[in-house]
Amino acid sequence: LGLGLKSSYFAEGSDDEDSDDEISDDEISDDEDTDNEESETAESNNDETGSDESDDEAAESSDEESDASDDEGDSEVNNLALAVSGGFRWNEGEDDEAGSQASASDADSDASDDETSSKAKKNNKRSKMQKISQDVTADLAEQAPRAASDFERLVMGSPDSSFMWIQFMTHYLGQSEVEQAREIAERALKTITPREEQEKMNVWVAMLNLEHRFGTKDTLDEVLKRSLQFMNPKHVYLQMAKIYERADQIADAERMHKIAISKFSESCKVWVLFGLLLLKNDKIDESRDLLARALRSLPKRKHVKAITQFGQMEFKHGEPERGRTVFEGVLGTYPKRVDLWSVYLDIEISSATRQGLDAADPNGRCWEPTRKLFERVVSMKNSSKKMKFFFKKWLKFEKDHGTEATVEHVKQKAREYVNSLGA
Question: Residue 123 and residue 121: Cα distance in Å, rounded?
């Protein structure tokens, strides 16, 4: 009983999770996270070095921030340690001389000692709680929890972990105690701190799964209504659509997607996921019509993203030739977009692999379209950083799928490019 948990939470793959190499929700990023990036990329698609330099600067900045954060963390730890050992003694009754010295010091600086005492108590309490958490869960580290008391100790040790709470719910569902599982879910929502929004969202998804499988239409509608009040409505509708899809209730899944589109028509993600559902259920024409509708509703800065993701879906679930047409059209408009070329190359490679063309063609003829694509991209005028990226990608491809001759051909092409720079 997964209750909506991601497969990465489990040591072994879940049978309920799709194992196909389809476009996942993680690959389809939220529009709020990518709006600025897309806008800047669209405006500077002819800039040969801007994106590479910004990536380097971002990496350096990230390293500096990380170092600074580590220094601050070390300083904070040292300060806490000093607060515990400086001025305040927990065992005053055991050492009279130390007690008299502390009393004299208190008379001189009451304010300073009060502050130190408060910090010491907080630090000691935190330390005790950590020890308790480790002690009560130590026996569960080597074996899976079996009884309700085991799960109680786990959620006490990790009160903000949705994984622990959902496992607790699953324990009761395995014993057909649905009402107990509902109570655990309600406890989880009250216990998890408000700032842990994703953890709360995981619990809501588990509740939706629970009511869909063990409840009634009324109980499911009630939980859905509540979750829409407390969590991001777009995410809730998309999760509910996924639940229906996994249960082969395609009509209900389409209904959820249509509601999401009506409320969030400027979100690329809702259009792409609906198009994916249609393609996977052999509604190819409807999916293509949906792309046309999406381009009329989405802001222009999101058009490239929508088109390329629909193109990827055509490769995987529709007609690969139409997917090539989509990418050729976009690259004709944005020939300097390294990310688009990289996606195009990757989708060509995965398409041939998925269809088993490489196994059925020992001579490697199935890779000729991909090689021609590499030849095209390295013949273009790009910055040295971009060219290095493409040559490395091509070399890796030939090492994986080519021969010694094709590998040497790539190296020769790279040498010719380097020599052309010095000419």
Answer: 5
